[in-house]
Design brief:
The chain is mostly helical. About 70% of the residues lie in helices and about 0% in strands.
């Protein structure tokens, strides 16, 4: 029970540390600017496929009526006018729309990388591929889903039609939640530049989707009571309300991202010893890394990339990077020209003591010079006896520790390529 209550407290601390509300405000303003370019590009891609070209109105209805409560029709009309006007733009104008859309995607990726503790952003080519996939494949998938549903509903087969019509009521009621759940799950898995477990993304997406449904319900009530906006702003009343809605929506999205990112960190904390000894954590991560690399060698692999190793450990990225760099500096691991990590030493000759020294674990063998300390001699003698006692254990070859059901030949180092 205490652990169940501790996780929400941990998430709240992460929310405050990551300044989620401030980031949501930034994303709300950028979304207000970037929404039209994103829709213009998406609808242009749909128009290139004759079978999907007539789905624009239905997609607009899906977005604004299901996800923007109460005042969605006013926003939809305004956005539709802007999107129609974008069709008259020159090449320079189209490039400007693309730049604004990329700015929105870049800002979202940066926010997610910060939440997921990603220290290295994607390369320029990697970003281009991800963004291009989002802007092209996304509209096509949405269009294909509409075409599939239309095809099912138009079937002449009596049995299929009855089933579809019978399920239509419940499905239409939960469709916004299911669509939001799927979108958030994909969002949390694809946007961060690290591998995210499906279950973690699904849990974060489920919480975010439930909060989003509650937000829609609450916002409808709020707008119904906020008639002063329409009295004061008239036709422009939808603008501040829409901006508020964007801020609240991004807050929910980021909260789901924090939950997704917190789950592996929380699992790592639960796996620690009860006194929360950080040295034990580093040692566990180190042997998770070594074990995964030994398995890769046994399978004939040529090393593993950092995201693969990070996923294998399930550790927070900051702790993972510290251990990885420590083992590299200690000469135990190395990185090839192809940015793959390999074991740099023969594990039959590398010892547990080598790993401990690389990670900075254990007591010092000797004391630095200390002036006028009466206890210096006694402490030095004690440390020396302790070191002599633990030396046999520290000289245990790593091959003996990692050789469970592994051939010794695979515990030799890779040749860097």
């Amino acid at each position: 029970m205490a652990r169940a209550a501790a996780f929400p407290r941990y998430v709240i601390r992460r929310v405050l540390a990551d300044q989620v509300l401030l980031v949501a405000g930034d994303l709300g303003y950028i979304s207000l600017i970037g929404l039209v370019p994103m829709l213009a590009i998406g609808f242009a891609i749909l128009a290139a496929f004759p079978a999907l070209g007539d789905l624009r109105g239905r997609i607009e209805d899906l977005i604004f009526q299901n996800f923007v409560p109460s005042f969605g029709e006013q926003v939809q009309e305004a956005v539709a006018r802007f999107v129609d006007a974008s069709a008259e733009l020159t090449i320079v104008g189209v490039l400007g729309l693309a730049v604004i859309a990329l700015l929105l995607l870049t800002t979202v990726e940066h926010a997610f990388n910060h939440i997921f503790r990603v220290s290295r952003a994607r390369s320029l080519v990697g970003r281009f591929l991800v963004y291009w996939t989002v802007m092209t494949l996304g509209p096509l998938l949405v269009g294909a889903s509409f075409s599939l549903s239309s095809w099912l509903l138009s079937l002449d087969d009596r049995t299929v039609s009855d089933v579809v019509n019978f399920a239509g009521g419940p499905l239409s009621a939960i469709a916004p939640f299911l669509l939001t759940l799927m979108a958030f799950t994909l969002f949390y898995m694809v946007v961060p530049n690290r591998r995210v477990r499906f279950k973690d993304a699904l849990v974060g997406a489920a919480v975010a989707a439930a909060m989003f449904a509650a937000l829609r319900f609450g916002f409808v009530i709020y707008v119904a009571q906020a008639q002063n906006y329409f009295t004061l702003y008239g036709a422009l009343a939808a603008l501040p309300l829409f901006l508020t809605w964007l801020f609240a929506s991004w807050t929910v999205v980021l909260l789901g991202a924090v939950i997704t990112a917190s789950r592996p960190e929380w699992r790592m904390q639960l796996a620690q010893v009860e006194d929360d000894e950080p040295g034990i954590r580093r040692l566990i991560i180190a042997f998770d890394l070594l074990g995964r690399l030994v398995d890769d060698s046994a399978e004939g692999g040529s090393g593993l990339r950092r995201p693969e190793l990070l996923n294998a450990t399930g550790a927070p990225e900051a702790a993972f990077v510290h251990v990885l760099e420590s083992l590299e500096n200690g000469g135990i691991l190395a990185r090839t020209d192809r940015r793959r990590w390999i074991i740099a030493r023969d594990l039959r000759h590398a010892t547990l003591g080598d790993v401990a020294r690389a990670l900075g674990l254990g007591l010092p063998e000797t004391l630095p010079p200390v002036v006028d300390r009466p206890w210096r001699g006694a402490l030095s003698d004690t440390l020396e006896r302790l070191h002599d006692a633990e030396r046999p254990a520290l000289e245990t070859p790593l091959s003996d520790i990692l050789s469970s059901e592994r051939p010794v030949a695979h515990l030799r180092p890779h040749r860097a390529s």
